[in-house]
Design goal:
The protein has 176 residues and is α+β, with helices and mostly antiparallel strands. Helices cover 27% and strands 28% of the residues. Bound molecules: ligand K2U and zinc ion (ZN). Zinc ion binds next to helix 2.
Amino acid sequence: MTTRPLILLPDPKLREVSKPVERVDDDLRKFADDMLETMYDAPGIGLAAIQVGEPRRLLVLDVAEKDEPRNPQVFINPEIVERSDVRNVHEEGCLSIPDYYAEVERPAEVTVDYVDLAGRKQTLKADGILATCLQHEIDHLNGVLFIDYLSKLKRDMVVRKFKKLARERAPARMVG
Ligand code: K2U
Ligand code: ZN
């Protein structure tokens, strides 16, 4: 297994709409393993393929509590097919927007159709942090970031901050 470099805001790749996975094969299973290793290493509780530069409709997550055994889950071509009217608020962060957190309101429960690593169609009804994480990751597959749910003022502030950080990270340009 290999960890992959994470794409950070303001990389425009994060705004790409990811393409459906055509074939569930050993290469995809190896990629899913790499994504899980990258997620645990970050650490995070979810990760979408676009965050490691692959515009494929695949996400991984593990919402097990710290004192519980790991429970890695892989979702291929996930689609939210039902959303509860009841909504809740959860503090969110993002591995592509490090060290920034904000409260986001989302449907409290979602039902997701997806394909598993064996290529079988599955349906999952989720609530709690699993529902939040699934919605956050599926947003990534559509080029949507959690800061898009904030006010324009707050979102522009975050983007400005990460553009400044990117300039500071960029290697000095050769002159002459
Ligand atoms: O997609 C990602 O960047 C991974 C997020 C997923 C996530 C964000 C918000 C709420 C639930 C899951 C990371 O795991 S960021 C770490 C984290 C986890 C819970 C709450 C806040 C931040
Ligand atoms: Zn994220």
